[in-house]
Specification:
5-stranded mixed β-sheet; globular; 1 helix; single chain; mainly beta; 26 strands
């Protein structure tokens, strides 16, 4: 009986190992070749305002940008194709509608533009009215004790997803209605220098999925918003990582920025010799397109409806936007 019980235990362990292996294999998939590969070239759009862009977002065809260096006007709204500046404002100060901290746009896939910075713990949501101007839709408070959070994404207008970087690599979820933390993704930090950590990455989300694109290796993780569980992993093991701690020039950056649209997500990847690539995936993990851009973008946003990428590079063109039709 003792031997039989040991055999049963062994069989159960083997079955568990096989199940775990199968689940792991089902989650992990090789990144497939892109069916569309295309070179696209920048149209330089000059604007009258002097701006140094930190972030870009697109809502209903309008381009919103933040500029943390101009203390007298830190938020702008432009209306293509003329690129008329519809809104320019947001000064640094302590007043009710002034920015106490440099503003940032909390990404989301709805039509509301969420802006943080009025206080470290307040996000304001704006809608475009019938005249294409911003109107305050809602205010939400965030229960941070220290205000440290990056890559903020508002999901279903009620959930905040963000990274703890640069303190940790972990991703957290907060219910904005109850003000309670309702989920967490623990990402292992493998070394003390977090900036050069192999598991460092960029975060974006739509209403059902969290996308995490690793900076130093070709890996993209998909997590469910509902339970924060890993449900898919895309890998390209043919791209060899190279991280030299403390040396940015020798370190190989593989994925640098991530934008989530309603239909697809977009990853900016460096290109040897200048320029960059924008890789496009759908939320099932299918490779959609790979665009080769002639100029490296420091920040970018995507107008999916009109198939336009808006970018910025102050070293190449500091007078406005770089526009790519794809």
């Amino acid at each position: 009986i003792y031997l039989n019980m040991n055999k049963i235990k062994l069989l159960l362990l083997l079955n568990c190992s096989l199940i775990t292996s199968c689940v792991s294999q089902n989650i992990s998939q090789k990144i497939q070749p892109f069916p569309e590969n295309k070179s696209i070239y920048a149209e330089k759009i000059k604007v009258n305002e002097i701006i140094a862009i930190d972030g870009i977002d697109v809502k209903k065809g309008n381009v919103f940008v933040t500029d943390s260096r101009n203390k007298n006007a830190m938020l702008y709204q432009y209306s293509p194709p003329e690129f008329k500046c519809i809104y320019k404002g947001g000064i640094m100060g302590g007043g009710e509608n002034e920015f106490q901290t440099p503003p940032s746009i909390c990404k989301n896939t709805s039509d509301i533009i969420y802006v943080r910075g009025y206080t470290p713990f307040l996000i304001k949501g704006f809608m475009l009215d019938t005249t294409n101007h911003l109107s305050l839709e809602k205010e939400v408070r965030i229960p941070f004790s220290d205000g440290i959070a990056n890559f903020m994404n508002v999901v279903n207008d009620s959930i905040l997803i963000y990274s703890m970087f640069p303190n940790k690599l972990d991703i957290e979820k907060i219910n904005l209605n109850s003000q309670q933390k309702t989920g967490q993704i623990l990402i292992e930090q493998s070394q003390e220098e977090i900036f050069f950590d192999m598991n460092r990455g960029y975060l974006a989300a739509n209403d059902s999925l969290i996308i995490y694109a690793y900076t130093y290796k070709k890996q993209i993780d998909f997590y469910r918003v509902s339970d924060m569980s890993l449900c898919k992993r895309l890998i390209d093991s043919s791209i060899t990582p190279n991280v030299v701690v403390g040396n940015i020039k020798e370190t190989k950056f593989i994925q640098r920025e991530l934008v989530a649209g309603k239909n697809y997500f977009y990853i900016r990847c460096p290109k040897k010799g200048g320029g960059c690539f924008i890789e496009v995936f759908d939320y099932l993990g299918h490779s959609i397109a790979k665009y080769e851009l002639d100029i490296l973008l420091y920040a970018f946003g995507v107008d999916e409806r009109n198939r336009i990428i808006y970018g910025y590079n102050s070293d190449i063109f500091e007078d406005g936007f770089l526009k790519y039709a794809y």
